[in-house]
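INFO batch 0412 | record 1 of 1 | parsing
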Amino acid sequence: MKKKSTSAAKKSAPAAKKSAPASGKGPLAGERILVTRSREQASVLAAELRALGAEVIEIPAIEIRPPSSYAALDMAIHAAEDYDWLILTSVNGVKALFGRLRALGSGIEKLLHLNIAAIGPATRAAIEEEGLPVDVVPEDYVAESVVESLRDSVRGKRVLLVRAKVARDVIPKQLTDAGATVDVIEAYETVVPEESRAKLREVLGNPALRPTAITFTSSSTAKNFLELLGQENTKLLNGITLASIGPVTSDTLEEIGLDVDVEADEYTIPGLAQALAEHRKS
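INFO prediction complete | emitting tokens
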């Protein structure tokens, strides 16, 4: 396994979205970086990387879709007064929750009594933009840190966890062990965007398009990337820097047989971009 570096801080496939050529200035000048986030979210990371001088190619390894039914989420919203805590783990979850709140004709007053926990500054900002205060943001932006932050506050309390269809069970299991009653509600699902399959292989196999680095911002992007690429084609990654947003994503990459070269110390999009810049200097 390679040593990770860290920073402080039957249709033809559509063409990969590519940035304008890099300006030649900045710590990532001359780098061509593949971003695997969903189309809706790729622009934030792409902008960070371009600001550091990189050329960016966007090929999503993940697509965000509504759940098969909003019934469970709608029921939870109607029963919001029965809960003490609300936990939101992503911006996607925030969008889904408040989107349904509006669709049901309700306002934020329905949730004002809740203590709210958010994983990461982006999720916190999305909640605050909706007009609600956030009570807890864990020191580390991972599920385990959420549990540590809430463990002593949830005994005998009801907790509403709004998240993706497929996610780790660390939060519900460990908070239940701490004495909470936890309801897990599916707000959205992530799927493999099939249109990315041919384009990914084309870009990796073409020296004129081949990236110098690939970024991974979640376990889902890591797993879906490998499914799109195919285990038999992992040799195409030889010589390419693989960069992870944090330890959970890194663990997933290593579990599926991909070495992690760069891991951000701050588990955020700016942290990931800075980690790549620091790696370039080393």
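INFO post-check: Confidence is low (pLDDT under 50) at residues 1-15, 18-23.
INFO record closed
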